Amino acid sequence: MVRVTTPSLLIPRAPGQRVLVRRALLAAALLSAVAACGTEAKEQAERTRASQAAVKAAEAAEAAERKKKQRPAVQGLHGMPPVLDPKDVYAADRPGKLSPVVKDFPSRVYVPNTESDTVSVIDPKTYEIIETIPVGRQPQHVVPSWDLKTLWVNNNRGHTLTPIDPRTGKAGKPVEVHDPYNLYFTPNGKYAVVMASLDRELVFRDPHTMKRVRTEPVTCYGVNHADFSLDGRYFIVSCEFSGELLKVDTEKMKVVGQQKLPFDGAMPQDVKISPDGKRFYIADMMADGMWVLDGDKFDTPTLLPTGKGAHGLYVGRDSREMYVSNRGEGSVSVFDFTKNKLTKKWHLPDGGSPDMGGVSADGKVLWLSGRYDSEVYAIDTRSGEQLARIPVGSGPHGLAVYPQPGRYSLGHTGIFR
């Protein structure tokens, strides 16, 4: 508020004149005050507008930040579940973290006996066979479906897939599929991918009916194992009989890269990606180690020796270690991802031929088939102690420990994310 004061005049005036002068002076003062108030109001309005603009800018910045946080850190393959942790592709595989789909399934170990044409079903609590299921000719692997609801037995020479309901343990009607040596699923669940080893094909099929959608011929020999990139946009495939690797575009369903491994007589087997998604590991049973590959660059890999006949690769529940089965010497090497080196080696008592398998849901037991010894090994993942040696059928191969933690399956004996 402006205070108005009329100054004293020393000029003598008549009484009426003095009143008029005071009034004139008062009016002038009031006009001056009003002008001052108008300026102050204008400035206040400008300050208000500036404040409102600042608030709007802050709100817009906050909304943009929220949108940024909501946006997936990894732009994955279209339709693929979001990557939970860009630094750990196995973040969904923690001990006991079972999907609601499988939480009521009984815990079992399903062992395909390649030469007996059966699947031995083991109760992991008692280490006893509780059932033997007849299947097709030469079953190679037992593979969990993408939606976790079915186990598919790959009857390689029988040219069929036998479905097993893991809730009941009962086998269903076989589905005709030619040369199904191994089976994978794209990360978005859109396709099953049959590794037709002798046909020299990657066959993309409907994941439920197994009807053929597209066939990608390959020039290498013995396509058999694979794993997908962190974003699911490509996968690396091993070609066992020609010692080669393939890089396949998942969405286009086409081979986009191919290379010969730099080892005479190389025989690549299982494939696994590192937790951070930066490297792929490929076991090689003739090079007696595993190749370390930058999948994005797909340049020449380096060899890390592990043991004679390196074959299967299995990541622990804490994503810190990976177990490498050395089939030719009856041992398991333990690889530390953080240290980037082997830290332990466990030898099976009385030897053996550890091949393919998986880790128990709680992460405490590594299960492996004894390919040439008609047995299955249960190994303590903390001490390396052999917990059990269970006789099964002839030629046990890609056994599946089921159920396991994870939101969905990429196939093989259980690659979960």
Automatic annotation (TrEMBL):
Family annotation (InterPro entries): Host-pathogen_enzymatic-act, N2O_reductase_N, PQQ_b-propeller_rpt, WD40/YVTN_repeat-like_dom_sf, YNCE-like_beta-prop, YVTN_b-propeller_repeat
Segments forming domain YNCE-like beta-propeller: 107-399
Annotated keywords: Signal
Region (Disordered): 61-82
NCBIfam families per UniProt: beta_rpt_yvtn (TIGR02276)
Protein name (Swiss-Prot/TrEMBL): YNCE-like beta-propeller domain-containing protein
Organism: Streptomyces capitiformicae
